[in-house]
Amino acid sequence: MMSGYGLMAGFGWLGMLVMALFWIGVIVLVVWGLTHIFSTQQPRAELDAEAILEQRYARGEISREEFVQARDTLQ
């Protein structure tokens, strides 16, 4: 007689370990997915050409004449 356990009698501890690892993996994947979906970081906005031009002028990388010429070209 098999006393009611059937074919799974030999996989007691191994089966419990595999099942525990499976559920831990599922929980980790759910948490990882939720943190990426509801992330508080905003995507970085690209600066437009005029903003870059104004920053370069403010840092002194270009002269007033170069700034005016580039701004007129952009518009």
Name the features.
single chain; mainly alpha
Question: Summed up, what is this model?
Answer:
The chain is mainly alpha-helical. The chain has helices at residues 12-37, 49-58, 64-74. Helix content is 63%, strand content 0%.
How does this model look, in words?
The structure is a single chain. The protein has 75 residues and is an all-alpha fold. The protein is 63% helix and 0% strand. The chain has helices spanning 12-37, 49-58, 64-74. Helix 2 (49-58) packs antiparallel against helix 3. The mean pLDDT is 83.
Summarize the SSE layout with pairings:
Elements: H1 12-37, H2 49-58, H3 64-74
Helix pairs in contact: 2-3
Beta-strand residue percentage: under 5%
Oligomer: single chain
Number of strands: 0
Helical stretch tally: 3
The helix-strand sequence is HHH
Distance between the termini: 90 Å
Q: What is the 3D form? A: rod-shaped
State the share of residues found in helices, binned by percent: 55-70%
Low-pLDDT residue intervals, each spanning 5 or more residues: none
Mean pLDDT: 83
Radius of gyration: 31 Å
Taking the sheet with the most strands, its summary is: none
Structural class: mainly alpha
